[in-house]
Amino acid sequence: MTGDGLPTVLTVDDEPSLTALYEAWLRDEYSVYTATCGDDALQLVETHDVDIVMLDREMPGRSGEAVLEELRARGYDCPVVMVTGVEPDVDIIEMPFDDYLVKPVGREGLISTVQNLLTRQSYDEHVREFFALARKKAVLEAACDGSSLSLSDEFTELKAEYRAARRRADAARDDLLTEELGEVVLHH
């Protein structure tokens, strides 16, 4: 968060008109930084406290995928939403993003995605992992032919990871409820 207490969003797209549009949509509720290339995006993350990155997948120079890999390699675990014209395919399974939006993206969809990602930040890491995998699975199921997904070893592995993450998220939820109930009993 910035000094003004607002969560920060970095929008990265090689089309300046889109970063300006996203900034206009978000600036009432968030501090917004913009970048039109991957290198500038990485510099902004180094010099500013960024809560969410909205990242175009295909950009000249350093691609959005390369920026995402570099962010994770540098230890940044802030939520990343890919905002792209590239239809998803099983190639997204290994990408460590939190959400995936296909352009054109409307104002309400963009704002609700940012709000949801910020809300998820307060969740246990297992719950956040579950939501990221659930979103990836849903994006692929909506965009890809079911028969091609059924033949994909990567998608089969994603479904297994999703089920395991769900079990971990359920256990984290149960632990939290047990702790909260214990606190209620202690304070009464």
Description of the molecule:
- The chain has two domains: 122 residues, Rossmann fold (3-Layer(aba) Sandwich), CATH 3.40.50; 65 residues.
- 55% of the residues lie in helices and 12% in strands.
- It is built from seven helices and five strands; from the N terminus they run E-H-E-H-E-H-E-E-H-H-H-H.
- Strands 2-1-3-4-5 form a five-stranded parallel β-sheet, sandwiched between helices.
- It is globular.
- The C terminus is likely disordered.
Topology:
Blueprint: E1 8-12, H1 16-26, E2 31-35, H2 38-47, E3 52-55, H3 64-73, E4 80-84, E5 99-102, H4 107-121, H5 125-143, H6 146-150, H7 153-186
Keywords:
phosphoprotein; disordered C terminus; alpha/beta; 2 domains; globular; single chain; two-component regulatory system; 55% helix; Rossmann fold; 188 residues; HalX_domain; Response regulator with chey-like receiver, aaa-type ATPase, and DNA-binding domains; 5 strands; five-stranded parallel β-sheet; Sig_transdc_resp-reg_receiver
